[in-house]
């Protein structure tokens, strides 16, 4: 098959590849603990499901406006003022099927061939994939374990220049669980203004924070006009399969994202958007309960990881991943990913699935029960002892 050459530059998310391998082993009768996929194991809260059913029963089953139904855009704008302290209008909001399209739209709309785009490494693999796809130059910023998976600002300064079109940040972060401090954001804001760059701030884990506070770079002086906030419903409300997310940005750019949405999806499912409105306006008790449970699991998995010979694991401050350093085992990340799947029946991801700087690490998602986490830890310990 002869495909367009740009397809050679498109990457992927290996979480889905490992999931398929793990399922194949399960089909052969092997027991697997799934710690590879980044999705809450909880059900979507009842009030949100009921709102979707009500919408379906009220014929909210037709095409809607490309950037989202006015009622949801308004709710998202109000929520942004409430949680981030940033005043925006419904016209600044574009609703998409999942938050992922906002990444694609931002990179496609802003980065020309040859432009430079800075992105976190290790980081969510789709950033690098799409930067390459559009022919821009990927410029990774190293997230360092010794800085609790933040970057060194002096290294950052050296990467930004006149060719930098876009800076992508993600906090709390996938795959490390690290969070950027207000000082980090202030430094990035200064550089973005000096070099006239856009910032894409991926805030999908903003509600899943255990220590410290979430700060949005968009709230800093002079940043709203050059920032795209990316957020969604998947992680906070356990709604991964609903496919609902959004971007908040200056209106002229929102109009262009809306045009991209018309070209790609037409719109986000209308009844899903009514459910999203309920998610933001309804009680947050379930979200708080899920976050408290994630915190309990985090403490169990971090403590357990640190008792495995060759593993050392920082305590992440947000999201639902741990990113232990496995260099002490003397094995590569790719080897251990395969080995633990086969020998321990534990599905994890090689740190290199998140970029070259992930070598020497594994990612485990703790969106699984404490009981399963304990089984996984025990099985890993036994498998590592056999190395
Ligand atoms: C950092 C980050 N951003 C965005 C997304 C995409 O989320 P959604 O399901 O809303 O497309 C994910 C999903 O894993 C993620 O980890």
Topology (elements, then pairings):
Layout: H1 14-27, E1 33-34, H2 46-57, H3 70-84, E2 93-96, H4 100-110, E3 116-121, H5 125-133, E4 137-142, H6 153-159, E5 164-170, H7 182-194, E6 198-202, E7 227-232, E8 245-248, H8 251-264, H9 270-281, H10 285-305, E9 321-322, H11 333-344, E10 346-347, E11 349-350, E12 362-365, H12 370-385
Parallel strand pairs: 1-10, 3-4, 3-5, 5-6, 6-7
Antiparallel strand pairs: 2-8, 7-8, 9-12, 11-12
Helix pairs in contact: 2-9, 3-9, 4-5, 4-8, 10-12, 11-12
Bound molecules: pyridoxal-5'-phosphate.
How would you describe what is shown here?
The protein starts with 13 loop residues before the first helix and ends with a helix. The protein has helices spanning 14-27, 46-57, 70-84, 100-110, 125-133, 153-159, 182-194, 251-264, 270-281, 285-305, 333-344, 370-385; strands spanning 33-34, 93-96, 116-121, 137-142, 164-170, 198-202, 227-232, 245-248, 321-322, 346-347, 349-350, 362-365. It has a seven-stranded mixed β-sheet, with helices on both faces. Helix 3 (70-84) runs parallel beside helix 9, helix 4 packs parallel to helix 5 (125-133) and helix 4 crosses helix 8 (251-264). Helix content is 40%, strand content 13%. The chain is built from twelve helices and twelve strands. Bound molecules: pyridoxal-5'-phosphate. The site of pyridoxal-5'-phosphate (PLP) has 13 residues, from loops. Pyridoxal-5'-phosphate binds next to loops.
Question: Brief description of this entry?
Answer:
By secondary structure, the protein is α/β, with parallel strands linked by helices. It is built from twelve helices and twelve strands.
């Amino acid at each position: 098959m002869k495909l367009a050459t740009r397809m050679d530059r498109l990457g992927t998310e290996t979480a889905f590849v490992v999931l398929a391998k793990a399922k194949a082993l399960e089909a052969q009768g092997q027991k697997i603990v799934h710690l590879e996929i980044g999705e809450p194991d909880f059900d979507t809260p009842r009030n949100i499901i009921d709102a979707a059913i009500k919408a379906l029963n009220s014929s909210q089953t037709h095409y809607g406006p490309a950037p989202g139904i006015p009622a949801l855009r308004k709710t998202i704008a109000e929520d942004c003022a409430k949680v981030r302290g940033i005043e925006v209008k419904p016209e600044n909001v574009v609703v998409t099927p999942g938050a992922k399209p906002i990444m694609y739209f931002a990179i496609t709309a802003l980065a020309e061939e040859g432009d430079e785009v800075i992105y976190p490494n290790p980081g969510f693999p789709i950033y690098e994939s799409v930067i390459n796809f559009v022919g821009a130059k990927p410029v990774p910023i190293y997230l360092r374990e010794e800085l609790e998976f933040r970057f060194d600002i002096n290294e950052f300064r050296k990467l930004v220049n006149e060719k930098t079109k876009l800076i992508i940040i993600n906090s709390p972060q996938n795959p490390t669980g690290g969070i950027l401090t207000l000082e980090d954001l202030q430094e990035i804001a200064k550089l973005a203004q000096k070099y006239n760059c856009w910032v894409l701030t991926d805030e999908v884990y903003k509600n899943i924070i255990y220590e410290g506070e979430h700060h949005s770079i968009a709230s800093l002086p002079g940043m709203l006009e050059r920032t795209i906030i990316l957020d969604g419903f998947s992680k906070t409300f356990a709604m991964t399969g609903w496919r609902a997310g959004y971007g908040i940005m200056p209106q002229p750019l929102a109009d262009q994202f809306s045009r991209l949405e018309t070209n790609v999806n037409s719109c986000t499912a209308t009844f899903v958007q009514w459910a999203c409105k309920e998610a933001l306006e309804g009680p947050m008790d379930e979200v708080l309960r899920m976050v408290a449970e994630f915190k309990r699991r985090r403490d169990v998995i971090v403590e357990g990881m640190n008792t495995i010979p060759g593993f050392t694991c920082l305590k992440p401050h947000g999201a639902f991943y741990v990113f232990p350093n496995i260099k002490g085992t003397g094995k590569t990340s790719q080897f251990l990913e395969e080995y633990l799947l086969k020998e321990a029946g534990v599905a994890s991801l090689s740190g290199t699935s998140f970029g070259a700087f992930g070598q020497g690490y594994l990612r485990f998602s703790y969106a699984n029960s404490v009981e399963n986490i304990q089984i996984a830890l025990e099985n890993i310990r036994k498998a590592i002892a056999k190395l």
